[in-house]
Amino acid sequence: MARSKEFEENAVLDKAMRLFWEQGYEKTSMNDLVERMGIHRRSLYDTFTDKRTLFLKAIDRFEARMGARLKAAIKQSPTAAQAMRAVFDAIIDGEPDAPAGCMLVNSAAELANRDAGIDAKIVEAFAGTERLLAEIVAWGQDGGEFTRQYEAGALAAYLHNALAGLRVMTRTSADKDKLRQIAGMSMLILEP
Asked: What does the DSSP 8-state code read for residue 2?
């Protein structure tokens, strides 16, 4: 008779995600994962197959969580400019009690040039962020808040690049006021 799971899969996946986010893929051992997730090694393998598969699921979990957080911030914004600032602020401020920086950017720097599957997953996630930014830019262009000199997708790609740089800087001890100044400078490209 098969044993039933004695854990909630999303709860232990969140624990693995945080550990990968804090330490990166290479530094995180199976022992670290078993200890942090609070499950037996056999349960980890039965549920997630192996470390790499668990990591890919953790990336999906991070992407969904970040996407929901950004969409919530945007939804509360009455103007496109405020929505764009909310996106930058969400990146700069991070989440309470969460590791610094961005799991996607950290993983891209660590693994994208060595693992085509992880690279594809990260490129896909970055494309999703760019689509979200392009929607905000198009909203701002339609309302006259943002320039029409450039196509929304091109502006979104530029702004995503700025966000990626800020995500790296949030892992350091850089002053948040300096990061907000960089965000403000990055948004100047949107002015009509």
From this structure: P
Range of the domain at 178: 59-190
Q: Residue 79 falls within a domain, yes or no? A: yes
> The domain spanning residue 105 has which CATH number?
1.10.357.10
Taking the C-alpha atoms of residue 91 and residue 70, their distance in angstroms, rounded to an integer, is 9
pLDDT tens sequence across 112-152: 999 999 999 999 999 999 999 999 999 999 999 999 999 99
Total structural domains in the chain? 1
pTM for this model (two decimals): 0.91
- Spell out, as residue ranges, where the chain has pLDDT lower than 70: 1-6
Query: Which residue has tokens 């891209």?
Result: 108
d(CA 13, CA 19): 10
Write down the pLDDT at residue 7.
73
- For residue 38, tell me if it sits in a domain: no
Residues 105, 51, 30, CA angle at the centre, nearest 5°?
110
Closest to 90 in 3D by CA, of 107, 111, 71: 71
